[in-house]
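User: Hello! I'm new to structural biology and keep hearing that structure can be predicted from sequence alone. Could you demonstrate with Putative sporulation protein YyaC? Please show me the input and the output so I can see what each looks like.

Assistant: Of course. The first part below is the input, the amino acid sequence of Putative sporulation protein YyaC. The second part is the output, the predicted structure written as tokens.
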Amino acid sequence: MNFLKQSSKKTFSFDVNEINNSSEFGSVLYYLILKNAGYLQPIVFLCIGTDRATGDSLGPLTGYKLEKSGLHNVHIYGTLDQPVHAKNIEETIDKVYALYKNPFIVAIDACLGKMDHIGYVNLGEGSIKPGAGVNKKLPSVGDLYITGIVNFSGFMDMLILQNTRLNIVMKMADFICEGISTAYLKLNSNTIHSENFSTFVKQV
């Protein structure tokens, strides 16, 4: 679970229960990658969390689904088999930078928020600070971030994470995976390359 690093850049929010929102999410992700990633810069999805707490399992569930999706040239760290969590995230980040030259990291993590924002996925430019929501000091990570609001923030956040419904976490993992697949299809076919990014995002 994370806090966002403060930034003036816009955050895009998507309700996972709205029809067609996953394709819109994928389109915005595609544009943000085009806008920020260098030519042939390797894209790494860092899926943060643990399956020991239902609410914190969004990252590894998403990583697991991405791994099974059949997408080519997708670099994934953080799955149900090999989760990336507080104890190994620094080691994993070091490994990513050792294996890939100038990697473009998309950090994926769960977060807590307002009651009426539960079920929303946030996408934006910049990094997140994993563990900040539960008072763990870990390094900020990410060139882009994808966060899912799995429950409300309040007293005893760790207990809230442990008592989060699996249903909402699964919906979010499916939503994010579908959106990433949409973005990759566009990246691989170079579709909509000529459209203006700023014009597009005003419509979202």
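User: So the tokens describe the shape?

Assistant: Right, they're a compact way of writing down the 3D structure. Reading them back into a model, for example: Helices lie at 21-36, 58-68, 89-99, 157-162, 166-189, 197-202.
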